[in-house]
User: What shape does this take?
Amino acid sequence: IACVVQRGEGDAVARVSLKAGASVPVTTYGIGGGVRDKLGLLRITIPPEKEVIDLVMSKYDIDSVMEMFISEAKLDAPGRGIAYIHPIRKGTVNTRISRKRAEQAANMEQMISAIDSIVGGVEWRKTRLEQENTRTRTFLTDLVELILVCSDGFGKKLSKIAMENGASGATICKTRYIYTSEEDYDRNPPRRDISKMIVSPSAVPKITRAIEEAGGFGDEAQALLYSHPVLKAYTYRAKEVKRT
Assistant: This one.
């Protein structure tokens, strides 16, 4: 699960998952664009600096944590951010180390996970109060996360091209390549921009062509573009006003 919020609000969102015992989040700083520019005068109160909270966790707890993120970050208000879920095929969540020999064949976490698998969810774990407080929300579906990695300084330009061709917004962060030899560092500076965008699958070919035509995959920008499916996402959407 990933959650993009305004700078300074990431700690509160990250603590939600820690208090729930879901997993340990990772926070990255970035700059947002696209959606903020469409808010008119409201954008003055919304800084472009963003925090991205990434959390790898069990699929059986994802809906509960997603609801916590939405409530804590107030994502149902304009310009607050977005939360979305994308699948991971393999991973290790519980990395605790113990020198003590186990007295039982399985620990409590393993037994709970096994019951989750049998019943197909975590509803059996919830109290009646938790079940009654579950909100009905309308999520966005049939989306992909499009990730653009390019040379330092090209992220804003290429993200703008993507937004002109179907992407509604982008969050740009800084990253770096790790090379196997010092010679590679001399030839290609390791600093990179990474831009994350949530788009419709039908928009990917058009965005790819536009970036290619702009020279994004050339020797200078050295762009890399890839995507993975988004199971569902949540952000503020203005209600349509029916005219009579």
Confidence is low (pLDDT under 50) at residues 240-244. Residues 2-90+106-132 form a domain with the Alpha-Beta Plaits fold (CATH 3.30.70.120). The longest strand covers residues 143-151. The beta strands are 2-6, 26-33, 49-54, 81-85, 143-151, 170-176, 191-199, 224-230, 232-235.
